[in-house]
Amino acid sequence: MTRISNQNHRERNAVEFRRVADAVVALGVDQIDRRLLLAMWMGGATGLSQSELAQLAGAPRPTVARRIGRLERQGYFSRKLLPGKGGTVFSVDLGRIGLAKDIGT
After folding, report:
1. Is 59 part of a structural domain of the chain?
2. Which of 28, 48, 90, 105 is least surrounded by CB atoms within 10 angstroms?
């Protein structure tokens, strides 16, 4: 029974990922922005640091820093400080890319 549940969960996640990926592609952004937005979505409610985003997107940190600033100004995600750690995490606004807020969280 657990094996079937795990398989169903993976299938639902794959379908969900495909929906988010299709929505991000429909925005007309380039490959690095798509990778960043998908990485942010995968970060879920906890978000990701800029270093984690750079690693997942496969892009240099300076490039990611510039892209983050632009995408944030366009409203695609939010930035918040981690209390006591001095770091910042980023999370994607699924409503802004045309998806319900509850997808992926």
Report:
1. yes
2. 28
Query: Which one, of 60, 25, 34, lies nearest residue 50 by Cα?
Result: 60
- Which CATH number goes with the domain that contains 16? 1.10.10.10
Is residue 100 situated within a structural domain? no
Q: Which of 19-33, 34-48, 88-102 has the lowest mean pLDDT?
A: 88-102
Q: Does some domain include residue 103? A: no
Predicted TM-score (pTM) of this structure: 0.69
**Domain limits for position 20:** 2-92
Helix axes 50-57, 31-43, angle to 10 degrees: 130
Residue 78, token pair as written in the block: 């939010």
Can you tell me the distance from the alpha carbon of 84 to that of 10, in angstroms, rounded to the nearest whole number?
35
For 29-60, the pLDDT digits (tens) are 888 888 888 888 777 767 778 888 889 888 99
Per the structure, the count of domains in the chain is 1
Instruction: Determine the Cα–Cα distance for residues 20 and 34; give it in Å rounded to an integer.
Output: 10
